[in-house]
């Protein structure tokens, strides 16, 4: 049995962190679903920048929509929504079989809205979800201080949300609070408590940030320690009286999702983070390279512990080495938003150049 199937049987969903029109057309995504136990998909501006900037798979659609007079941003979202609709249809059987818990695809609101809660992010999330016309489409909203109110409001209005750009236990708990408040408001107003959500904790970027700071024995350990600490908070929340009351009313948990799980250190194993983050009732979204390395591996090791004691020991030692973990969490979240905004601007620029080239009138 492949390690991918072992993780699936453990209760962890494996999602792929990639999408392109080519993988939809040539059957690559369908193969990942059938052969690698993949049950969902995530996207972001960096992924779409690469997908739309390379090759000619989008050119015909770009030219047609440009002739219709669409703005570059509208053109992008139309292309992205079409891809994600097709991916959502591939995952629809999983979504149906799991009662809506799994089988999701994700689309991000414009990263330029990262500091704009009211009304832009809320309106954009509702509009994109309506445009997608798929019940297994998550809209991604960053879990920044400005994004948290938009998460609560979107959940209240029934929009499934993938909370992105979380880097710490505290940031996760703020997102979980927003989710529960949204569900509680729905119950108070006689609405269904079933609105799905995941909370995406980014892992490997921690270790990339401190690689020149911590001693060799603590290289590639900070991200895992942060994840273990956050997992304990997640399990504690699910055991709380407040959550049990919501669950009794029919609400589904906001699952914890491990993001940024590809190994960035060339000296470390390709499956370093995937092996460490094996945990039931979670999602691991990973690059295709990491997924296939996992499938080739000998199998899944130990399940992530719930007590968090080892994680706290690691964090204490890393603090002693001069790392301000709280400050770094805030910096990583800001840097993550800046990176997506940079990719977004590059994506918009690249699409603009394509529009100009594809709609140019040839000399007679």
Keywords:
364 residues, alpha/beta, TIM Barrel, eight-stranded parallel beta sheet, 8 strands, 11% strand, globular
What can be said about the biggest beta sheet?
8 strands, parallel
- Strand arrangement in the largest pleated sheet: 2-1-8-7-6-5-4-3
CATH architecture: Alpha-Beta Barrel
Structure class: alpha/beta
Could you tell me the mean pLDDT? 94
Q: What distance lies between the first and last C-alpha atoms, to the nearest angstrom?
A: 62 Å
**Counted beta strands:** 8
Low-confidence stretches: none
Return the CATH class.
Answer: Alpha Beta
Output the number of helix runs.
16
Element order: H for helix, E for strand: HEHHEHHHEHEHEHEHHHEHEHHH
The amount of beta strand, in percent, is 5-15%
Gross morphology is globular
CATH superfamily: Aldolase class I
The amount of helix comes to 55-70%
Kindly provide the radius of gyration, computed on alpha-carbon positions and rounded to a whole number of angstroms. Answer: 20 Å
Indicate the CATH topology: TIM Barrel
Tally of discrete structural domains: 1
